[in-house]
């Protein structure tokens, strides 16, 4: 079809005379600085990159919606969950954790499962993973942990010594280390994995009653994983296979879906449960707290532009709506600072104004924040920019305060009081069929073989042994070592 030609402009909108030949002094002469179009083009190109995410740099995203399928108003007053059948637009981003922006999708690594719900009460973000637990349980340990997953400062290589040194000195990681080296450690695609909020959150209903909750998104495509050899082969052949799979599936009208369930714990149970329910290295027993259905997530639209919608997307565990709140989980509390801080550095002070991050059109943003780099709306115009004021400026609504709850204690740097890192890891091992146990051991041995120090290997074997003597023995056998006498 013949289309009318569009004329090219510079960034200021003026027509460009030549985009193929720079202005030179004569046909063979040097380039003239007066070619301002050339200068603009080269300078803008130099600034095309923004910092990649410090973790979860490689990812893929898609738009969709969430539909409520079960009445949960007894537990939360969140408006987007208020009615069966209600639909809320959303955006999801899936990712690997440790690799750079160009790294392979098929590595053994947790997968990020970040969701943004564009609700009528503003945005709600749930920034989870494909695993229900995490490696550490205090935010103060996170930067050190991530350093061990990234590159060695001298060699710039991935470093199994650092990985297993940290794990062996952080026994709370054992549960997640077992999941990571199990079949679920390499999901076949982003569509074939579950998502978890991992932390405990708090829901509050219209009567002011609160509950502790954990989120479980179950894939309706079924769980599918990839073995180590296939993952490594694919990392060379098609490092973007999961990115491609998500895009192509949606493009073909094969929309991936997940069912959301929550576990609900009465507030007072937290004091008497057999371990700290805010410890993100533990799962709650489904017998104690069975799954309650909430709704269904459908991803049905690809981004039009990767940078605008996926790279600039900014998810934060602190982006909450009335009826959904945080718990005292020490990791979660640290994350409340880390994400928005990362966004201000990576995208800018006004990142929430970008189309992918701003609330939906029927939600107006009203506050006294003004100015900052790249403030590209009306910036509040002439309206009052301070509070209290006599000019009918926006006011806080006490009914939307975070639900109050009692705390007490001595302010101190205190370790968790629960030291059983072994029962849940051992239960998971014992649950695995024999062939998966063998793959688990092979994956662990394959990774630990790269560790130079026997001291580190033996310290880690001790943890496996404490989870299950057979688990420890088989890793020791695989590494040609004996289980330490004190295990
Ligand atoms: C991304 C910090 C724990 C899931 C990030 C980013 C930071 C960060 C700084 C990059 C954000 C950006 O540039 O947009 C932390 C800290 C943690 C922590 C300090 C512990 C204290 C966790 C846990 C989970 C998780 C426990 C899952 C349960 C994610 C996901 C992303 C992410 C999914 C990618 C979000 C996206 O797709 O844009 N994290 N993280 N993180 N984190 Fe964490």
From TrEMBL:
<keyword id="KW-0479">Metal-binding</keyword>
<dbReference type="InterPro" id="IPR011614">
    <property type="entry name" value="Catalase_core"/>
</dbReference>
<dbReference type="GO" id="GO:0042744">
    <property type="term" value="P:hydrogen peroxide catabolic process"/>
</dbReference>
<dbReference type="InterPro" id="IPR024708">
    <property type="entry name" value="Catalase_AS"/>
</dbReference>
<dbReference type="InterPro" id="IPR010582">
    <property type="entry name" value="Catalase_immune_responsive"/>
</dbReference>
<dbReference type="InterPro" id="IPR020835">
    <property type="entry name" value="Catalase_sf"/>
</dbReference>
<keyword id="KW-0349">Heme</keyword>
<comment type="similarity">
    <text>Belongs to the catalase family.</text>
</comment>
<protein>
    <recommendedName>
        <fullName>Catalase</fullName>
        <ecNumber>1.11.1.6</ecNumber>
    </recommendedName>
</protein>
<dbReference type="GO" id="GO:0004096">
    <property type="term" value="F:catalase activity"/>
</dbReference>
<feature type="compositionally biased region" description="Polar residues">
    <location>
        <begin position="1"/>
        <end position="25"/>
    </location>
</feature>
<dbReference type="InterPro" id="IPR040333">
    <property type="entry name" value="Catalase_3"/>
</dbReference>
<keyword id="KW-0376">Hydrogen peroxide</keyword>
<feature type="active site">
    <location>
        <position position="56"/>
    </location>
</feature>
<feature type="region of interest" description="Disordered">
    <location>
        <begin position="1"/>
        <end position="27"/>
    </location>
</feature>
<dbReference type="InterPro" id="IPR018028">
    <property type="entry name" value="Catalase"/>
</dbReference>
<dbReference type="GO" id="GO:0020037">
    <property type="term" value="F:heme binding"/>
</dbReference>
<dbReference type="InterPro" id="IPR024711">
    <property type="entry name" value="Catalase_clade1/3"/>
</dbReference>
<feature type="binding site" description="axial binding residue">
    <location>
        <position position="339"/>
    </location>
    <ligand>
        <name>heme</name>
    </ligand>
</feature>
<dbReference type="GO" id="GO:0042542">
    <property type="term" value="P:response to hydrogen peroxide"/>
</dbReference>
<keyword id="KW-0408">Iron</keyword>
<keyword id="KW-0560">Oxidoreductase</keyword>
<dbReference type="GO" id="GO:0046872">
    <property type="term" value="F:metal ion binding"/>
</dbReference>
<feature type="active site">
    <location>
        <position position="129"/>
    </location>
</feature>
<dbReference type="InterPro" id="IPR002226">
    <property type="entry name" value="Catalase_haem_BS"/>
</dbReference>
<keyword id="KW-0575">Peroxidase</keyword>
<dbReference type="Pfam" id="PF06628">
    <property type="entry name" value="Catalase-rel"/>
</dbReference>
<feature type="domain" description="Catalase core">
    <location>
        <begin position="9"/>
        <end position="395"/>
    </location>
</feature>
<dbReference type="GO" id="GO:0005737">
    <property type="term" value="C:cytoplasm"/>
</dbReference>
<dbReference type="Pfam" id="PF00199">
    <property type="entry name" value="Catalase"/>
</dbReference>
